Amino acid sequence: MDRGLFNIILMGISFLLIFTAFQTGAIIQKNVVQAINSEYNKAWNGKEWNAYNSLAILYAVFSLANWIAPSTVALLGPKVSMILSALTYCFFVANFLHPVLYGLTSASIIMGVGAGVIWTAQGNFLTINSNHENISRNTGIFWCLFQGSLLFGNIFVYFQFQGQENIDSRTRTITYTVLTSAALLGTFLLCFLRKVEPSSSSSSKKSTGPLEAICNSFKLLKTEKMMLLCLVFFYTGLEISFYSGIYSASIGFVTSLGKDRTKYAGISGILIGAGEIIGGAAFSIFGKRTLKCGRDSIIFLGYLLHMISFAAIYINMPPDASIQETSQLAYIPTSLTIALACSFLLGLGDSCFNNIINSLIGSVYQEDSSPAFAIFKFIQSLATAMAFFYSNYITIDIHMYILSTFATIGTLAFFAVERTSKIEKAGSTSSISEPPSAGKPKHLQSIDSQITLVVD
Questions:
Q1: What is the pLDDT of residue 201?
Q2: How far apart are CA 351 and CA 334, in angstroms?
Q3: Pick from 125, 129, 11, 88: which is nearest to 370 by CA?
Q4: Reported pTM
């Protein structure tokens, strides 16, 4: 196994463990926080934790941290940046072992900084361990391993939450002890990433300094192509907030699903993860074939899957299930089968969007990937923060209107970018294949040939 592939696999396993802790915790956070507020009501004099506000703060700080992330990665390198950032994830998850009044807010701020750095470092590390031929394969391998976190973490939660209407202190302690241990193990494995020998092209390139990295990010953001891509990034941020912190918790709040309905939040997370893994595996195995079909065709598939799931959620889920426990009726009697099928479609559609975006950035911006990945995560996390803030006040049907609108805008924007890229590629190919003197009069061709001899 070559060193680059070894690094991709090890990084994927590390992220699997770290995000088994965080993503599983985010999916159940609304349900867990509700139980914590009941338990600590007297000790905190009626003050409460707020799950959606916590995640909103986290992603808001995450968004801002993306502007310092390229400088941090340039200064420390991607490996050290990932290790230090992973420790902030460990701190956030461990915060649930012994809740204190302002602990959730503090942990959210700290982890927000770490999240901004870890994802920029991850994108940079993936790019320097890949080339044009294997970037699709490596992106798919990493994504498949990373999203395994949703699968394994939520299987554990499913068994932990069985038979519980509310999550008691003992269950919470066992759950977050295991999740914290997983995050620490993932952080430890990052220490074994190997240094990649620079290629001749990369070794001749001057390394980017911290200040230059920030300037490059701002310059890149002003380009027309990146501005269009930002519309796609914004949509992925909205839908990440919905599937990672809102939808699964909403299933756990529907009283008609039974007394131990909180376990279905875990099953929802498992199916979201299954969709992500299947999408990542397909992209890894059939990466070259899917790119021959065109990136826009994969984005359109993701768009269709999400629109189908949005329509089904709209008619199947009680509107106020995203905010509180509810016995309210939906347009149809709430079906657990439909609800869980939508979880799978959300994961599969998200995989289409994120794999294509990562592949595109790693390919188009390979020479200077840190600023591009920083912009991606800045816009995405900004949208996620906004979505978690307004999720305290809006119902599921409004979520569906917002998501459907931005899914359409983002998909159309991606089509425009892909069309421009194809035209540019076709133009560069024709200019290379056509001799400089083609179509010129013979006496000018003769002059060209003489100039060529002199230059040679």
A1: 43
A2: 26
A3: 125
A4: 0.76
